[in-house]
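Risk register update: the risk of archive-format incompatibility is retired. Evidence:
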Amino acid sequence: MKINEFLTKEEVARFTAKSDLQAWRLVLGNWLMIVAIFALVAAFPNPLTILCAMVLLAGRQLGLSVLMHEAGHHTLFATPWLNNMVGQWLCAAPVFNDLTAYARGHLEHHRKAGTREDPDLPNYAAYPVARESFRRKVIRDLSGQTGIKLLAAIFRGASGIISRESRQGSLPLLRQLFVQFLLFLALYAAGIGWAYAIWLGSFLTIFMLIIRVRQVAEHAAVPDLYDPDPRMNTRTVEAPWWQRLVFAPNGVNYHLEHHFMASVPCYRLAALHDHLKRRRALDGVPVFHGYGQLLRHAVMPA
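Archived output:
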């Protein structure tokens, strides 16, 4: 699947154009949603609102992770230093990650996707899996076992929760802890310091499950995991808005399009998807409408 088969030079320039305004819209929009979720819990502190907040905050944690991913590709902001600064402090550190190390490992995944050298293969190579196996994974995620294990790995030297890279020195960990402390101080100053436990609890439980579903959605049980063509080794999920709110914020569900041309910012992936459909580049590619249909495909009945 070659870019010049489906896009002219002018179209490539249009789809790869970066915008500081669009980037700030996504970053600030994500944080405003986080503030609104905490405000809801502060106004109505009860088990139902706390549960809803945990789900929604986990979705926002994924949203920050997606923006970190964009900054790692240098596609979020048009201004280079904003990719590094905002991507590190407002996107990576709040979700216990380090932008530099994450980008290093993730770009290796892009170089080797569709081969047996893909460093991310352990996340999805075993799919489809039996329902009982997936159920055990879900229990580990929602009970906090996965999150605590991964958080412990960070303290032992891993660079971040969704990165296989090792950190270089103690600075990344100190940065992550500093940002977590600032978040706690902001909540404490608002009179709801206890709400930081919701942020951390969401991260250690529901966010872990969301990350697992994302990994399944992107590359698991695809037509041919070892074919370099992204139409064979990568998947896009056309999901309704309420699923995208939690499982696919900031256009991350258009993963096939992202692997087709990684220089396209996430805020232009939907337009690229429509363009490729019009050019019939996606003819014959399996279409999944929502994450329920996806999981029924990737998780086999007993």
